[in-house]
Every structure is written in C-alpha cells, then in structure tokens.
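Anyone else keep sequences and structure tokens together like this?

Example one:
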Amino acid sequence: MIKSGTQQLWLHGIGKIKVIAMCLLFFSILLPTAPQAILTTISVLTYLFCKGWKDVWSKSSPKPGIQSVGLNILLWFLVMSLGIHLLSFGIDLSQADADSQSAVIKNHLRLIGKQGLWGFFLISFMSWVTLRGFRLASIQKPLCCMVAFLVAYMLIQRYTGIDFVQGFDAKISDERYSDGVYRVAGFIAHPLTFGFNSGMFVILCLGIGLLGKYENIKPKLWLLTSALGFVCLLLSQSRAPLVFTMLAAVVLLSRQAKIRQISLGKKLLALVIVTGSAAFFVQNRMSELWAQDRPLVEAIPRVAFLDVHWQMFVDHPLTGVGYSKRVDTALEYYESMGYTNLERKYSAHNIYVQTLADSGLLGALGLVLKIAGVFVVGVFLLQISNSWLLLSLLLYGLISGLTQNTMRDSEFMYAFWFCFGIVLNSIWEKKFATRSQIENLKSGTDRTHRQKDV
C-alpha cells in the first residue's frame, strides 16, 4: 500500500513537471533566446535519455500515427535540405583561411541547428509527452495568466520605460521614446523580433480556439489568450508583423464553417474595430514612412539593404559570397555602391534575398526544401482534419520573411518549430479524443444491449 501510494505520488509529480515544462515552452515564444535555448536543451535531453523515440516511432502503437507520419515527412525534407547545406558549408569552408575556419564551422553548425535540427527534436519531444498523456487543456489557464501578466508588464513598460531584463534600475533606450510613450518588447530586446513572435503566438492560440471542444479544451479561454497576445503585438508598435498577423488570421478564419455563418455586417464591424485599434497604436510608426523632405533611402532604409544584397547575388549567383563572409562583404558593397552616408548598414531584411546573397541558388534550394516539408505536412493535416492552422502559420512565416531575416532569427525559429509541434499534436489529440469518445459510446451501447438480453 505504501509502495502504491509512493508510486502514485511520483507519477503525479512527473505529470506536474510535464505540465510546467510545456507551459514554459509555450510561453517562451514570447521570451528571448536564453530561456528558449535552456528549455529546449532540457526537453531534448530528457527525450533522448528516456528513449522517447521508441514511443513516437513505434509501429505497434494502437493509437493513430498522425505524429509519426508528420515527423517522417518533415524528416525526409530536412535530410535533403541538410545535404544541400553541408555542400554549401563545404564550399564556404574551402574558401576560408586557416584562422577563420573555426568561425565558419561554428556559424554553419548554429544555422543547421536552429533551421531544423533542434526544431525536429523539440517536435519529437512534444509528440512524446503527448503520447504520454500531456493535454493542451492542462496549460490553458496558467498560460492565459502568464500572457495577462506580460500585458500588464508591457503597459507599465510603455509609460515608464522599465526594462527588468537589463536590471531593476535599467530603462529602455531613448531612441524608442516618442510622443510620451516607449516602444516596448516585453522581455525580448528588440520590438520587431517580439512583434513577429507575438504574431505567431496569436495565430496559434486562435487556431487552437477554433478547433472546438475536445478533451476539456475551452475555446473561449484560448481565444482570450490570443486576444491578449494581440494586445502585446499592438504595444510593440511593429508595423509589418501586425499587418501579416491580421492577414494570416483572416485566411484562417475564412476557412471556418462557423465564421461563414456570421452575417456580413458583424464581420465588417469586427474588422473595423480590429483595424481601427491597430491603426491607433501604430499611427506614429506609419507616419514615419511618409515623412516629408526625406530621400526614399532614409525613409525606408530597406531599399538600400535589398539593393546591396541583390547585387551580391547577381555577382555570385551559384554559391553566393559565403555565409561566414556575408557581413564583411556587405559592408564592401555598401561602400562601392555609394551608400557611404547610410546610418545603418544592415542585412537584407529579407530572408530570400539574404539567402541568395549568402549562399546563392544552392542555399536557396535548401531553404525551399525546408519550406516544402512544412507545406506537405500542412496539406496532410488539412486532408485528415480540415485544419488550416499549420498552413496559416506557414503563410505568416513566408510573408514575414519578406521584411526580416526571420528564418535565421533564433527567437523566431524557436516559435516556428514549437508551433509546428503544437499543431501536429493538437490535431492528433483531437482525432484520438474523438475516436476514444466513439469507442466509449459503442462500448456503452453494447453493455446496454447485453443488459436487455439478460
């Protein structure tokens, strides 16, 4: 009896740890790289140490194999992409001198990790804990509370400029102060990075809320969490993420049967309210684009960024200038192309042009394979569950790449792969919960018939 009680207490404790871990992993979408890396490392090592792959890849499991099929599809595309990346890596390494070879190796390994390797293991861990009993319903309340706390912190941060990440006495830079308020980013250093991650968070929670009731899921609570995430996005005053989030949300909502039944007047009213709120929060940011007496390059520096990196690709179309040489080479191009007075000489702020400049058509092929893998899994989930969530998230990721090097940003790639894992497992959870309910109904009917026969 004592042994049984101890075992139950131990299992209960393990279950609580899983819930806390998954809640922190989910909330880390809105956190900086350090907690993301720490939590991912602990999760992946736990998955490997406990031999979680035996559960995820088991062919004898009686449960639906949605996770293993999705992971298989992704794995094949990532392996093909990895082969392309290793070829690009070899070319880059062969052109480097002895003193810079270690830096080349480090840079490429880091890129391989965040663009697929760590993401694949993180998704595998999430599949394992789901098979072991984790359910989204167990984190819906604490997650909502954590996001509400973040909203409160950002509101205080907006008017006082506090920045607890840098220290209790630290304040946000004056460069982000305008018209009596600060442009805030929560616990992340840059508002634009926070904005892109917030958009991903908003779409994910919105999609979960639209999946419907199953396994104690409360759609209204997830929709509230999504709304709180949207408030965080508004507070960051990030223009592009706001527009892209609204676009992806419209695509997701337009595919829902319940939304189609709502009258056109109510839809327009909701659109006016959301658009009006968004315009109010970013009005000053939008006005910067049309400031008078400013050259186009000064008003929109991305024009120069794109021009320089596109020329780098034109001069080196097959393999690019080299991933490890991208910064030094870009500075040389800024000088040679006459952008000497430009205050900021940044990267392309476009993942597609950036990839072409760094790695040429060869590197672009590797990026296309990664995107294709996610797209194929999204189509697979659409066919078996009629869910557009993963495709909507992919759409958001693709259009976000037009204005930022998102798929090389550590925070964004963590959010992207985590969202992939949540969608894959939430679809499995819904399908398996439905199947279990049907089996319970059938077994209940059989018992009723047997009682009548007796």
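And example two:
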Amino acid sequence: MAPNNGIVWFISRFKDISDFLKTRFSKQNTGEVLWFFGGQVLVFIASILVVKLLTGMGKTAYGEYSLILTNIAFWSLFIYNPVNQGFNRFYFDYNNPDSLPLYIHLIRKFLTQISLILFALSVIAGVAGTVLFDERIGSLIFLAGILTVFFKISEFSTSLLNIIRKRKFNSIVSSVERYSLIIFIIGLIYTDLLSLENVLLCYIGISILFGLVKFGKFNFSHDLKGNIDNSLKPEITQNLKLYILPFIAWGISGWLQLNGEKWVIANYLSAAEVGVYAVMLNIINAMISFPTYFITDFFTPHIFSNFASKTDKEKINAGYNYIKINLLIVVCLILTATIMNLVFGELFIKLISSDSYTDNASLLPILTVGTGFFYIGHVLTNVGLALGRTKEYVIPKVGAGLLSLTLNIIFIRIWGIAGVALALCFSGVIYVTYLYFVNRRLIREFGR
C-alpha cells in the first residue's frame, strides 16, 4: 500500500481507527467527553441565538458590535491565547507540590497585570475617542476595553478548568453564562432598552460574575499550602517564552486574516455593511469553524504520539496519514458547507437575522471557500507542531495576514463587499500553497 494514499490507508487501517475511538471514548472518560461536547453544543446554540437577537438592533449597530468583537479577538490572538496555550502546555510538567504554587502564582500575576494594562489603555482610548470624535464613540471604546478585560478572564478560566478536567462544572457554568446573556438581551428588547451600550454593560456584568466563579473554582481545586519557591521561576518563564512567542506571530496573522477586513469594510463602506458581512461570517463559522476545531482536537493527540517515535518510520507515516485524514474530512466539510450555502444561503441568513441582511447572500458560497482555506491551513500546521518546528510557519502566516489586509484594501475599494470574498480566496490559495511546500521540506528533512 502506498503510504501517501490517505483514503486507502483509512479503509485498510479501520481497526486502528476503531481502537483509537475506543481509547478516546473509554468507559472512564465517556462521561467527561460527553459533558465537554454537550457544553460546546449548548454554547454554540447560545451564540447563534445571541446573533439572532442582536441583529434586531439594526445593521449599523450590529456592525459596530462586530467591530467591538474584533477588539476582543485581537487581544485574544495576540496575548491571551498564546499565553493560555503556554500555561496549559506546561501545567502537568509543574503539577507537583514544589512547583505548582509558583505556577499558579504566575497565572494570577499574568491575569492581574494584563487586566490592569488593558484597563488603563481603555481609559486612555475612551478619553481620546471622546476628544477626537464624540462622547458616544468614547464610551463605546471604553466599554469595549472593559468587556475585553473581564470576558478574557472568564474565557481564560474556562480553558484552565478544562486542563484540570473540570469539564462537567465548566460546561454547566459556561452554558449558564451564555444563556444569562440571552435572558438579559430579551429583557432589554421587551423594555425597549435594546442598544449597543446596554448590551455591552450586560455582557460586562455577566463576564465579571462568571469569571470570578470559574477562576475561583480553579484556585480552590488546588491545595496550595506552603511558601512559593521562586527557584524554578527562571526555568518556567523561559519555557513559557520559547513556547509562546511563535504563537504571538501566528495570532497577529490570524487576526489580520479573519478580523482585519471588517475595519477595511467600515472605513471604505459603512458599519452597516460590516453588520451584513458579520452575519454571513457567523453562518460560515457555525458550519466550518466549530466542527473543524472539534475534529482537529480529536485527531491531534494521535498525530503527536505517532510523530514522537522519531525512529519508527511506520509510526511516522501513520501520523502523517492521520493529518491527511483530518485534512480530507475538513475539505469535505468545506465543500458541503459551500454547496449548502449556494442552495440555502439566503434562507440561513434570514433564520439568524432578518430579510434586511440578505443583500449580498450570493457571496456566501465564495466567502465559505475563502474562509475554508484558513482552516485547511490550520490542519496543515499540525506537521510542524508535531515535529516541534512551529517557527517554520511564522513567515507564511504573517505573510498571509499582510497579503490579506493589502488585498482587502485594494479589492474592497474596487468591488465593495464582494472584494472581501475575492481577497479571502486569493490570499487563501497562496497561504495553503506556501504551507504545502513548507511541510514537504519539513518531511524531507525529517527523513520520511
């Protein structure tokens, strides 16, 4: 059997896949996995309901709300997510009585310091917005910053609880958090108080409450008696820095690829057009992003375990073929989503918003393909991650982000919102092609 024939390998090695599934869903962890998956589904449904309710504010207000979310996404991808991945990666390395108190202290110190920095920046930016523009813009900037602070504490705590396997608690609390927001939004609608400012205030209040609950649970889950031993601090911080830095570059690129275009649309078109585009992007994320990350998370441990056997060619080939199977599933997912959006795209838009958001429904299939390239790239980077060569992707990822921003500026000025779809496809093809050749070189160097 040819090792690069992924489909044939999948069929002939069905027993291996079956054993893998049994390992992942054994009697001991089935409940944990179901709680995790069930919680994710409930949060996902809640997110769709929030979109449905908030689009009632009107296209302009919803566009402004979407721009505020890009601010949260920026800090997520630039700081919080890389640091969170670092703390998660090394948690079990330092999960012992000597080093764990220091490790938890470093987590608290990071969240405290970044929160204070963002709070100060929010105050400064809010005042500047009031002086340069008007009071409403200044208040929105300030509220957006404060929301980022508390929302990220809540989200960061969610990830920490998952790493210590408090999935049942996490799923319940995260679901209650999301549905509490829905209840407050419905209350705003029925009292005729639905506005962007009031929505942000509700969001901030809920994030504060549940962030404290989740981070408190994380703290109380550890017996941290005794003094903090700082002797390991240089080692821990050095390991974290080396692991985190490439992800910061990745984060900037990811933000430019999936969020930067909203600001270009707002600048050259209008906030209302941002609202229309954001609704279509929510549909695409529901059909591609959510299942892609779940599927990739499912395959990643098996990929890494096979690549860890650096001298066993059969296992290395098996690991590479798992990546190909993962890629095959994601490509099929993108093709299915594209066809469904081609046939039912306008209906989907109406279901999660209203008729006023359907002006550019014909672009939905093209946007699906363009966005799909980003997730294909996400799967392809598993090769470098498995080989411990994350730095190899810094240039293609940053380059793709800058290319995407440049093309969006050019194309949107010429073709309007249709230019976003063209820019996504054009930059996506180049990005995936570049990653393909990087992976070929890595595999050749590795001696496969």
